[in-house]
Write a structure and sequence with these properties.
Helix content: over 70%
Largest sheet: none
Low-confidence stretches: none
Strand content: under 5%
Shape: elongated
Number of strands: 0
Order of helices and strands: HHH
Distance between the termini: 46 Å
Radius of gyration: 14 Å
Length: 87
């Protein structure tokens, strides 16, 4: 596929994974769609690298969604704390 194809596929999967990660996290989420998609890209990249190293193939998508959901949750909690003024 080549490196360009791999990067394009990571971008597409990252956008989808970001949306899935946001859906998994319960409750209202104060972060915007742009940050959610960015987190999805990071989750897809990290999950893809770890999945590639472990050799789990297509099942890496589960890892990518899990990492993205964790990041969405962490950023959402941080955003809520900043918005409420507490630390």
């Amino acid at each position: 596929m080549g490196i360009i194809g791999y990067i394009v596929s990571l971008l597409i999967v990252g956008l989808l994974v970001g949306g899935l990660g946001r859906l998994i996290v319960p409750g209202p989420n104060p972060i915007g769609i742009g940050r959610t998609l960015g987190i999805g890209l990071i989750g897809a990249f990290v999950g893809g690298l770890i999945g590639g190293l472990l050799g789990i193939g297509i099942f890496a998508i589960v890892l990518e969604v899990g990492i993205s959901a964790g990041l969405v949750y962490a950023v959402g909690v941080r955003s809520r704390r900043l918005a409420s003024g507490s630390r």
